[in-house]
């Protein structure tokens, strides 16, 4: 699971275009968009203020001097705005504005729907501006996908890791960004509850779920806490870092490849050492037990391969072996034990063929 903002993209989404509806001037749209963004501290909302200032020389205004009431953004409503005198301005996603207008029995015009789709199909985020129940237009926001991330996701796919992008963007924008980034699936218009539900669904299906995020936008902290492996971006919030199992200092989600490499290499090293340890213990038992009990059970002399004559000589041989010989054998046990990235199916297929072939030979001999 990968949160889009700050994880797949650079996370500095910027406003770059005002798209007014017919009958609305671009400056009128810019004025309303800037006014609703003055108290908003996020980078993308501040970019709206700067863009309006650059295009139309609209200066920032003091909300206290205007006796304005600011409506903060929330993950549930996905909408924010401001109330100034007789002006009620709201900005948010197309769906959130649609729900907002439905409360007053207003509707979203077909022109707005078309404009939102055009912006979303380009992989940009449409932010709809409405004033006094009247839609003024759309502000187009654009983010940049991190470099070479598509190739890294392809490598993760080869390793058997499914990538799922999670974003608060609408379905069309999410689909365009998912295709550009090369992820396997995506969850659009995500709320904290939807994130948790998706993670729990994969866990219920028996999957090991890893979540990467930075805690911005839709809250990632709860999803990070629910995931089996949680990787917080260094550029993210403190809450996300505390909820994660590890923090990626480079804020690069494809670091999961290195995490998988290190984890599987550790498991293989542990398995090799365990196998060597078991073999070594069996060797010592065959060395000491036959010699120690051969007087009582002469049949055990068959196992006394080294022809030791007393228990003390057997114990001394085991001590010398542990002190001198085993030190040289451990590096040999770990030789060529390295992880090669491949899917689980590719890894199991040769073993299944060997097992099938063995069973075939066995039943042929039995017949």
What this model shows, in words?
This protein is α/β, with parallel strands linked by helices and 367 residues long. The protein contains 13 helices and twelve strands. It has three domains: 12-144, Calcium-transporting ATPase, cytoplasmic domain N (3-Layer(aba) Sandwich), CATH 3.40.1110.10; 145-252, HAD superfamily/HAD-like (Rossmann fold, 3-Layer(aba) Sandwich); 258-364, no CATH class. The model has no long low-confidence stretch (mean pLDDT 81). The chain has helices at 4-8, 26-37, 43-56, 94-102, 110-121, 149-158, 171-181, 192-204, 221-226, 238-243, 255-293, 311-333, 344-366, and strands at residues 2-3, 14-20, 69-71, 79-84, 87-92, 125-131, 134-142, 164-166, 185-187, 210-213, 229-233, 246-248. Helix content is 50%, strand content 16%. Strands 2-7-6-5-4-3 form a six-stranded antiparallel beta sheet, with helices on both faces. Strands 1-8-9 form a three-stranded parallel beta sheet.
